[in-house]
């Protein structure tokens, strides 16, 4: 199983004062990524366009679990997900798309990589629920769906785009989601590392871009079903919008056309 995080090392440093016993313990948390992550970062950084496609072509996909995300599978099986139309941006191999899809929920998996989209189709085309989902090769930031969504699920997508793009991500979510729809964010990686992708995230990072658009967290909890070294570094957020809240910044961005950007400039 491939993971973003390779290991977490804890070092307890004792600080002493002259003539006194140790009075404090300072814990430093350093995150060491797997070699595949550094290779992926270099490839994305050097490719002016098509970086993510190159990653998929070369099999440099350390974010790909190879199976559905346990928490999303649990929410589906317990009936805790909204019905209707759902979107999974940056869906990759499409495991979560398939896991969520059912007769009461049609799921669209979106990815900027042609290779990823083809892989998702190949893996899922013969499944019993294949009529309940579809995969599209398109850029999240420039794509315009024919219908709005009741649910948007984001995992390893928010952390893949550059931090300066996050306000545009929020505006696009608002644009695609029904007024009474729900945004589910599996926040990862919650850490203090430098650089990316994946770029570090925090609850406040989401609040900073979602609150001005009227989104409020219904609940934010630790992801108790996080896998492997992602344990302790994920939170599940469920957001809904106050439809009475308007945001001038969102209107300005749409009027100026600044939502039209290349996803390959991100992750």
From TrEMBL:
InterPro entries: SAM-dependent_MTases_sf, TPMT. GO terms for biological process: methylation. SUPFAM superfamilies: S-adenosyl-L-methionine-dependent methyltransferases. GO terms for molecular function: S-adenosylmethionine-dependent methyltransferase activity. PROSITE patterns: SAM_MT_TPMT. Keywords: Methyltransferase, Phosphoprotein, S-adenosyl-L-methionine, Transferase. It comes from the Eukaryota. The keyword NADP does not apply. This is Thiol methyltransferase 2.
